[in-house]
Amino acid sequence: MGKIRLRKALKKGIRPNPVGIPSLKELATAENEGLSLEGDNGVSTYVQTILDQVRSHLAEERDSGLNSMSMAIRDSKILEEILSLDIISIVAPLLFDQSLLVRHSAAGALRNLSGVSGTVCDVMVSQGVMKHLVSFFKQNYGVDWVPKTGKRGGDGTLMVDTITQTYIQGINLLWNLCEWNENALKTFNKESLFLGIAKTLNPKVAGISVALAAGQCLNTVTEENKDVVPNEPEFERLLLEVLGQTVPEEDQIQWIYLHILLIGHSTSIQLLIFFRDVTKLRLRISLI
What we know:
Layout: E1 4-5, H1 9-12, H2 24-32, E2 38-39, H3 45-54, H4 59-72, H5 76-84, H6 87-91, H7 100-114, H8 118-126, H9 129-140, E3 149-152, E4 158-160, H10 162-180, H11 182-190, H12 194-198, H13 203-206, H14 208-221, H15 232-243, H16 252-287
Antiparallel strand pairs: 1-2, 3-4
């Protein structure tokens, strides 16, 4: 990392941030007053510090850098700079970090990034985010994984552990990517992610937070997606089981919303199966 040039900084009274990262307010002030917050390598001080932290051998530093990145992308210029640095190759491997907190922060940072716009999702997919995300689900959340649900907090919210929270972030990231990018959706189909996620639709097993995240994601990927048709009997049994459960007084609104999503799944998949069968029938007729 080259020397940092902070022209006029002393004259204007801008003091270094004790944690090493200038605040967004300081960045805006520097820009308005014509100051340079750029290092010799052309990367801004703010972004370079984030990169240094994310690449640190200390888990606390990596976690701090990822959280800073989640906040920094609210600034359009910083967002543009971060995307230009092939940020996926830097952040996505941290989905497999030894530290559970770093994994969670990495998933959260990528999820927040994907929530900016469809254009950003396109860049993320072009930089290979789906390869990492597929491995994330298959390695960390295989067929034997069961979400842990804990006690309720003071506000009545059902508490979940860090591993489960990270799963929810990953599901929301997948949801955003598949909603905006056709190649992400094709990868979802090719890697057969449907049933792996569908198994977490049962709130009695996975908890309502996980079930809702899975339901929202699958509601998007089943819409007009003829290649996503799952193992029909298995999925039908799952839908009937969940829809047949009594809605508890606690989390009542979330349960009702989940049931609405599942009815939508059922309708979408039945239509997909119908059009698939019609297509097969037409093909057979054409061959006669």
